[in-house]
């Protein structure tokens, strides 16, 4: 009892609520008796009332405390609070009814009085709590006005009068620090038109924004439709731009559901919102079984994909999450982020290069990783065309060395992050990834029943380092031109969180030797992507910012492919993941090929190295004759 007593003395609101509820409960019972006897209460009933007051009011207070109504914040009151209050008072009334049935009149009031008292208690306590809430909100609202009573915050319209919009409006109203004053709602649902949400009018569909802008003084629109289709979001963004006001949006459903952000953490519309990907549904239980209470190693953890994989692994409570990267600043930033998220006890930042065999062996020996995600790689296609030896050294030889260590130290699952550029490759980067895939498939075939080796292929990732999105953003900020290689160049795109989630899901499905391919949706023209990004910046393509076509770069394809000839397609139990199986080469043959390339790494010219790669990756079509000076300043 002592801790409970100390807890109460340290919380003054407990005593305030106890007194407030007591003051409300007494007149409720008193009034119930008066109504029951038509305001002429005889002496016997008067005596009963005084006796009942002595035990029923404390009983009601006890149950209010058990239902956490005596330790809540005074000026917050919501439906869950009301529900708990009703439950507490109903139980107390039920006990009173039981006393009446057991001991009769004099011990407890009649059924009519008990029911009247229950109704009055609920009404009076609810009124008291709502009055406190209204008082708090009126004080917060008063800070929104200056000395002359005029609003001093930017007037905004909220597009979307659903739950997200209502929560956003309420939070913006209460917190003047945001500097935003919601004055109007717009919604596609006609049943909401001409109604009010938090006393803010719903004026009609988003198409009415232009006509209402001046009357309501709207300077910015906030899109609060986290579940809307990309097509509709695009239409609304265009409407907002036509109205000549600013445009922001609320976080997506995935982030809100995971509790990573709040509804009021507004951001600018991004190209990801317009290109759109369906929400990924995960089998979290299978992922938990693979990751929970196990040592997980992520190579390339400081990169775009590697860092997101780490963010998504951490909530599954691994025994230890090893963050390996050769970039000290990248690992430091990720470590700080995960520590702020409450994962400091389960992460270990490790600076190291996968090519450093002694360092890798020391890590495997010390930490004994059980699950490994291999995301470390060179991925910049044009840059690797100029130095193919580095692509082979890091992407192929580094992967083989890491896979051998995984087998030696008994890693349970090894997942290689590959690329759609490994399919019938025309670039050194793609050929190096294809060789890495071949190695782990051959290693699996030679060692069945031990480590499960698998690869996951996906295309371009929106917003990743070195991708086209940051390049276009920089070019737009500099006033253009935005450089695109070819008018018909298309690519498959997915978001970083989506790619990382599907990598985790693929890791749960592998039996060993498979290559998983993620559903990339429909290919997108790079030129269309450039135009959308220009328009999102409030500019006009071809007028404010020019789009310049510079020609396909060495190693690039006009269209990306899905699979190799000879790979057998097989579905999985996840709709956005499919599996490819192929007959692997002998491990001795692949090792000999890698040994031959290793010996030639720094003795051959780039074109000679590419021809040597083609000897071991027959479907590789090298781009020869590239000169360093031809690549200067080329982009897009």
Overall description:
The protein is α/β, with parallel strands linked by helices and 636 residues long. The chain has 3 domains: 2-142, no CATH class; 154-269, Rossmann fold; 286-460 and 493-521 and 561-630, 3-Layer(aba) Sandwich (Rossmann fold). It is 48% helix and 14% strand. It has 22 helices and 22 strands. The strands form 6 sheets. It has a 9-stranded mixed β-sheet, sandwiched between helices. It has a 5-stranded mixed β-sheet with strand order 2-1-5-6-7, sandwiched between helices. β3 and β4 (200-201) form a beta hairpin. The radius of gyration is 33 Å and the shape is elongated. The N and C termini lie far apart (70 Å). Residues 1-10, 144-151 and 630-636 have low confidence and may be disordered.
Indicate the overall shape: elongated
Beta content: 5-15%
Number of helices: 22
> Distance between termini?
70 Å
Largest sheet: 9 strands, mixed
The average pLDDT score comes to: 83
Radius of gyration: 33 Å
Contiguous uncertain segments of 5+ residues: 1-10, 144-151, 630-636
The helix-and-strand class reads alpha/beta
Q: According to CATH, what is the class of the largest domain?
A: Alpha Beta
| Major beta sheet, strand line-up | 10-9-8-11-12-13-18-22-21
DSSP, total strands = 22
CATH homologous superfamily label of the largest domain:
NAD(P)-binding Rossmann-like Domain
């Amino acid at each position: 009892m002592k801790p409970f007593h100390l807890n109460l003395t340290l919380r003054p609101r407990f005593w305030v609520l106890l007194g407030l509820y007591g003051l409300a409960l007494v007149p409720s019972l008193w009034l119930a008796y008066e109504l029951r006897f038509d305001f002429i209460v005889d002496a016997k009933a008067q005596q009963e009332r005084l006796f009942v007051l002595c035990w029923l009011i404390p009983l009601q207070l006890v149950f209010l405390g058990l239902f956490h109504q005596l330790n809540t914040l005074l000026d917050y009151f919501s439906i869950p609070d009301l529900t708990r209050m009703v439950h507490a008072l109903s139980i107390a009334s039920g006990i009173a009814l039981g006393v009446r049935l057991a001991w009769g009149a004099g011990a407890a009031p009649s059924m009519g009085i008990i029911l009247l008292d229950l109704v009055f208690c609920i009404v009076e306590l609810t009124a008291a709590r709502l009055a406190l809430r209204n008082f708090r909100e009126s004080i917060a609202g008063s800070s929104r006005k200056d000395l002359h009573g005029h609003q001093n915050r930017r007037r905004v319209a909220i597009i979307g009068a659903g739950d997200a919009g209502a929560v956003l409006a309420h939070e913006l109203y209460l917190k003047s620090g945001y500097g935003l004053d919601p004055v109007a709602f717009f919604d596609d649902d006609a049943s909401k038109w001409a109604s009010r949400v938090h006393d803010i009018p719903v004026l009609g569909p988003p198409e009415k924004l232009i006509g209402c802008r001046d009357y309501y003084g709207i300077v910015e629109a906030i899109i609060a439709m986290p579940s809307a289709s990309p097509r509709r979001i695009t239409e609304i963004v265009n409407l907002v731009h036509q109205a000549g006001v600013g445009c922001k949006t609320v976080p997506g459903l995935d982030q809100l559901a995971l509790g990573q952000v709040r509804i009021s953490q507004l951001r600018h519309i991004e190209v990801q919102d317009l290109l759109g990907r369906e929400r990924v549904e995960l089998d979290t239980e299978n992922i938990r079984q693979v990751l929970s209470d196990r040592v997980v190693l992520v190579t390339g953890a400081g990169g775009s994909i590697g860092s997101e994989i780490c963010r998504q692994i951490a909530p599954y409570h691994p025994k230890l999450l090893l963050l390996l990267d050769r970039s000290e600043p990248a690992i430091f930033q990720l470590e700080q982020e995960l520590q702020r998220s409450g994962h400091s006890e389960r992460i270990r930042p490790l600076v190291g290069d996968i090519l450093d065999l002694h360092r890798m062996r020391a890590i495997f020996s010390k930490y004994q990783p059980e699950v490994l995600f291999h995301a470390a790689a060179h991925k910049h296609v044009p840059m690797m065309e100029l130095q193919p030896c580095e692509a082979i050294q890091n992407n192929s030889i580094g992967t083989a060395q890491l896979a051998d260590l995984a087998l030696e130290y008994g890693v349970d699952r090894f997942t290689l992050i590959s690329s759609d550029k490994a399919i019938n490759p025309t670039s050194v980067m793609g050929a190096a990834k294809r060789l890495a895939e071949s190695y782990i498939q051959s290693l699996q075939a030679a060692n069945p029943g031990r480590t499960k080796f698998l690869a996951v292929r996906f295309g371009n990732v929106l917003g990743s380092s070195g991708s086209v999105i940051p390049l276009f953003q920089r070019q737009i900020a500099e006033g253009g031109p935005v450089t695109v290689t070819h008018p018909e160049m298309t690519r498959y795109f997915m978001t970083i969180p989506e790619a990382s989630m599907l990598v985790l899901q693929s890791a749960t499905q592998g039996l060993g030797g498979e290559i998983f391919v993620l559903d990339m949706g429909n290919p997108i023209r790079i030129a269309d992507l450039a135009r959308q990004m220009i328009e999102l910046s409030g500019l006009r393509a071809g007028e404010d910012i020019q789009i310049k076509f510079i020609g396909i770069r060495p190693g690039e394809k006009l269209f990306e492919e899905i699979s190799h000839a000879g790979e057998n397609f097989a579905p999985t139990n996840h709709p956005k993941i499919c599996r490819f199986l192929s007959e692997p080469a002998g491990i001795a043959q692949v090792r000999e090929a890698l040994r031959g390339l290793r010996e030639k790494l720094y003795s051959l010219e780039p074109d000679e190295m590419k021809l040597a790669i083609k000897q071991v990756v027959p479907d590789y079509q090298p781009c020869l004759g590239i000169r360093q000076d031809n690549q200067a300043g080329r982009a897009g």
